[in-house]
Amino acid sequence: MKIKILASALEDLHAGRQFYDNQVDGVGEYFFDALFADIDSLALYAGIHQKVFGYHRLLAKRFPYAIYYTMQESNTVIVQRVLDLRQHPQKIKAALG
Question: Residue 9 CA to chain centroid, in angstroms?
Answer without folding.
Answer: 7
